[in-house]
Structures are given as structure tokens and as C-alpha cells.
Amino acid sequence: MIESGRIVLKIAGREAGKYAVIVEKIDDGFVLITGPKSVTGVKRRKCNIEHIEPTEHRLEIGSKSDDSTVEDSWKSSGLIEKLEIVVPKKRSKVKEAKEAPSGKPKKSSKKKIV
Questions:
Q1: pLDDT-based confidence at residue 7 (cuts at 50, 70, 90)
Q2: 42, 58, 92, 114: which could form a disulfide with 35 (CB 3.0–4.6 Å)?
Q3: pLDDT category, 85, cuts 50, 70, 90?
Q4: pLDDT, tens digit, for every residue of 28-41?
Q5: Mean pLDDT (the chain, rounded)
Q6: Which of helix, strand or coil describes residue 67?
Q7: In terms of DSSP bridges, do strands 30-34 and 6-10 run parallel, antiparallel, or are they unpaired?
Q8: Has residue 25 been placed in a domain?
Q9: What is the pLDDT of residues 70-84, one digit of tens each?
Q10: Does residue 1 sit within a domain?
Q11: Is residue 104 assigned to a domain?
Q12: Residue 20: closest CA among 67, 64, 62, 63
């Protein structure tokens, strides 16, 4: 069941409850997984196999696939809707313009210790 392309559910850690895809089996106890972050919110990382639960679903990905390939596989498979995955929204990169300094020196928040 632990094979490249298998969709798993994270059951431990900060990403518990989120789906990921196994990219590569590292050894008997660890695998390399990815969401990717743009689809499920799971970053590419090494994961203990005791912290994941395999599902019956599988994606067709190549060995050591990059995140864009895995993202395309997710979208073409239709599993995002079937598994009811909430895709994270991208943050807007609009930065507010900083006000120009008024010429007054800033007060230091550090206190002097005497």
C-alpha cells in the first residue's frame, strides 16, 4: 500500500487531517510526501509512515515528480471534488505604501539599565 502515487491522509502533526501524495519511499520507516501546498496545504517533506493512513486512491505520477506535475495529476483526476479538499487561497502580494518619515526621531522602546 505504501507506493509512489498513493494518496494518504496525515493523521499526526500540524498537517493532520490533510491529504498528501507519496512521491518516493525513502526506507522502511519513512516516505517523501507532498500535497502539494497549492492544492492540499501539505509541504513536500519526509514523513514517518506511522503518521499517515493510505487511502484506496492513487495518482499516476512519475518517480521523483515535482509539485507542478503532482498538482496537474490532482486536477485531472477529479479527486479534489470527490475527497472534498479545500484548496488554500493564494495571498495577494499587494504591499501598502509606507508613509514617509516626518523628520521626528523615533522613540526607542529599549530601556536603559543603570
A1: very high
A2: 42
A3: confident
A4: 999 999 989 989 99
A5: 85
A6: helix
A7: unpaired
A8: yes
A9: 988 888 998 988 888
A10: no
A11: no
A12: 67
Task: Let me know if 102 is exposed, middle or buried by CB neighbors in 10 A (0-12, 13-18, 19+).
Answer: exposed
Range of the domain at 75: 6-82
How far is 56 from 8, CA to CA, in rounded Å? Answer: 9
Instruction: Say if 113 falls within a structural domain.
Output: no
Tell me if 29 sits within 8 A of 48, measured CB to CB: yes
- With CA atoms as reference, report the closest residue to 22 among 61, 76, 68, 74: 61
SS percent in the chain: helix, strand, coil, step 5: 15, 25, 60
Closest of 25, 21, 17, 18 to residue 7, by C-alpha: 21
pTM (two decimals): 0.74
What is the C-alpha to C-alpha distance for residues 61 and 5, in angstroms, rounded to an integer? Answer: 6
Give the domain CATH number at 39: 2.30.30.30
- Domains contained in the chain, number: 1
